[in-house]
Amino acid sequence: MNENSPVAGDDAVAIARVLANDHVADIVEALNREPRETASELLCEIPFERVVDIFDQPELEGASELIEALPRDKASKLLAAMSVDRAADLVRDLDEPARSELLGNLATPLRATLLSILGYPEGSAASIMTTEYVSVPSSWTVGQTLDYIRKVERTRETVYAIYVVDPKTNVLLRATGLRRLIVGERDDLVMDIAPDRTPVTVSPLTDSEKVAQLISKYDLLAVPVVDHGKILGIVTVDDIIDIMTQETTEDVHRFGGMEALDEPYMKISFLAMIQKRAGWLCALFVSEMLTANAMQSYESELERAIVLTLFIPLIMSSGGNSGSQATSLVIRALALREISLGDWWRVALRELPTGLVLGSILGVVGVIRITLWQYFGLYDYGEHWHLIAATVGAALVGIVTFGSLAGSMLPFALKRIGFDPASASAPFVATLVDVTGLVIYFSVALVILRGTLL
Amino acid sequence: MNENSPVAGDDAVAIARVLANDHVADIVEALNREPRETASELLCEIPFERVVDIFDQPELEGASELIEALPRDKASKLLAAMSVDRAADLVRDLDEPARSELLGNLATPLRATLLSILGYPEGSAASIMTTEYVSVPSSWTVGQTLDYIRKVERTRETVYAIYVVDPKTNVLLRATGLRRLIVGERDDLVMDIAPDRTPVTVSPLTDSEKVAQLISKYDLLAVPVVDHGKILGIVTVDDIIDIMTQETTEDVHRFGGMEALDEPYMKISFLAMIQKRAGWLCALFVSEMLTANAMQSYESELERAIVLTLFIPLIMSSGGNSGSQATSLVIRALALREISLGDWWRVALRELPTGLVLGSILGVVGVIRITLWQYFGLYDYGEHWHLIAATVGAALVGIVTFGSLAGSMLPFALKRIGFDPASASAPFVATLVDVTGLVIYFSVALVILRGTLL
To answer: Most CB within 10 Å of its CB: which of A8, A44, B115, B394?
Structure first.
């Protein structure tokens, strides 16, 4: 492709062919691969209808910058033609003055809708809902509903979920699916063919993760966002899939001990990457400095029994590893609501014996290791080698138990004070356990080695 | 509730009321809370139609044990009435002889279908597909198709995705949605109202994670599993949501350094929990023993400069933390296909400068810490304290850079040899980096401190 005029000559023909046949998701992927200016130029060559489809895809990168580059009147037309939830996403990312200018050009009802969606906090059900759903009065028949759907189909994000409301109060009464309408008789009341139960709904401020759980649990195609009984909008299953993917990314990044990246790894700027990683790394580093303090306070013991230092890395890492296991288990169980905040003591009662058994297993392995090395002359731990072995073994029991307990309680503590439990990253747990691990190790050593080495 | 007869008297009335109105997902949740024997008893009181709905929910725990407890003829009727993909799941979990007995009781075509689904490897698209989809010949009109859907609706998992096949060869030609049929004229050919493009399909052996990605990318309600052009079955969006949730759980557990639990945290037996955790913990412990070997080989340096030991935990954890960050970034970028195996060198070229900058930041913080402590008399690092500070600073640059590089390359290496990159858990990376970290630290110390302390 010619770098200066990417859409000239043969390319234009090729692009036209792609646009006619390719799925819009593939076109978006192709646009994402181009530099932003090329993508901007390409968009000018594409028929308006298709541009609307493209901007409707949440996967389009830099959509707000692309829309800013368009002539204002075209951009406004685009916003009006897009699905409402995507338009709200876009406007949210727009900078001033483009934001006010574009909103000013919109028809008053649409502007009001967008502003009300934008008024809800990010991550809430209302902030990701679309107002383009199908609702009909309970007095309508199946035939009337089908005729109505035929008319409005093009302007609705989904027509598979149909909401039946009270004709006077507009309060949501029932939810049904298009498949039930198809099977029903034209003269049946839509109210009668809908399942006879209160629909699953969420409130505007429900967390989007909770919305995902409900959609997954009840196998829904959409869930209505309801305020005082009236529908404000719906959240559809494909929005939820995108949110689940994004949440997993955030959790993995946080669990790795860093701020979640909001851009793909290869696209984020070097500086942004350093910023996202350096903060946590420094915080962990500063906390970990406590280990140096702990070591300093045991300096005289260290000098008398230098052999103790050999096992410091081994012992510390075991505490970190057992803590990391416990944390990941509890984070996930909390996320899946297998356990709730009030279950902390039941978890503690499970982790205590688990930690003791795991610690004993590692302790035995550690004692065997030291005995073998001593026995085969691979290393000489001195005349009191069996006491050293006992110290290492006993310390491992204590540290693994403490690691399991601390690691499992940390997500509860974080959740209790309002943080995401997934922030309890492995490095965070390890740092917490490291200092305590040193204290446990040297305390055990003082007890077992007093009168001999110490 | 009376422990001995949980469904007697008033309870029976209460349960009947729940069954009539509650969503099946709520009933499943209630059953999951009961001990298995009570659940089994309760199931006998529930009308057959409702039992089918209950067993169709993948969330039902111990479904294979529950079906084994039923009389064989009822169990066979249940398997026949369930959706095919769930029936296959259930049969997969059944033990002999129940499995053969139940399969033997089924009608030949259903048995053949189940056995063919069971023949595909776990985690493949075909192993999770259902054969209950809607496909029509391309010669049919919209009216014919709608009449057909009306007739078969009850027996199909979804009727929203409609597949148009060649009437002679049965080869898949087009995919369309029920909404297009509703809008079309009854006399239109179904082929003409379908979007004019090759449908998105997967092959029977496509990995279920890849299926999830396609459904998410193209916002599909279902994707057909196709072999030699013909549809074998479809995978629906709600199956994919369940799989995404399960994959996330597995990844979080693996990332925490343990085998993924396949049961909820509070339900898994104590012994199974120990087994899942002890294996990895021991493996990491044994690898980490190398740190003891590394320390032993530097014993004479340690004796001469005991002050060096003070910073060992700090330095080792920094390597582990930076490695953990890099690993989590790369695991996620690989999972989202932002990068592929061949991009390893581009990632290395990003991680090298990132590691150097992050290491320098930590190095400066470390030097400041030592200087401050020395200056304010909080600790006396001896006359060569500035050399100690230089050693710690330089070692941090080396270790963080190595940690970032090793952590980012490990997922590539695992993927290359056929493992899940998510197995590159934080503890695994930390263990890898710990030994190298010690070697780097003491090597730097030997260079900087030679002639003074060492």
So the answer is: B394
Radius of gyration of chain A (CA): 31
d(CA A219, CA A240): 12
Q: Do B256 and A325 touch (CB under 8 A)?
A: yes
- Range 184-223 of A in CB contact (< 8 A) with B: 196-197, 200, 212, 215-219, 221
Task: State yes or no: pLDDT of B16 exceeds 80.
Answer: no
pLDDT digits (tens, 9 = 90+) for A376-403: 888 888 888 999 999 999 999 999 999 9
Question: What would you measure as the largest C-alpha separation in chain B, in angstroms?
Answer: 96
CB contact under 8 A, B257 and A314: no
- % of chain B with per-residue pLDDT over 90: 36
Phi, psi of A174 (to 5 degrees): -145, 160
Q: Which residue of A has its CA nearest to B316?
A: A313
Superfamily of domain B134-236: CBS-domain (3.10.580.10)
Q: Is the pTM of this model over 0.90?
A: no
B434 token code pair: 């710990």
Q: Evaluate the omega torsion of the peptide bond into residue B204 and state whether it is cis, within 30 degrees of 0.
A: no
Domain spans of chain A, in order of start: 10-119, 134-236, 270-449
Distance from CA of A333 to the nearest CA of B (A): 6
Asked if B331 reaches chain A (Cβ–Cβ under 8 Å), the answer is yes
pLDDT tens digit sequence for A168-198: 999 999 999 999 999 999 999 999 999 888 9
pLDDT tens digit sequence for A215-245: 988 989 999 999 999 999 999 998 888 888 8
Structure ipTM: 0.79
**Quick one: B10-119 is in which CATH superfamily?**
MgtE N-terminal domain-like (1.25.60.10)
* Residue B86 Cα, gap to closest chain A Cα (Å): 14
The CA distance from B302 to the nearest CA of chain A, in Å, is 8
Q: What fold does the segment set A270-449 form as a domain?
A: Tetracycline Repressor; domain 2 (1.10.357)
Q: Which residue does chain A place closest to B348, by CA atoms?
A: A266
Measure the CA angle with vertex B122, ends B118 and B128; round to 5°.
70
- pLDDT of A54-79, one tens digit each? 998 888 888 888 888 888 888 888 88
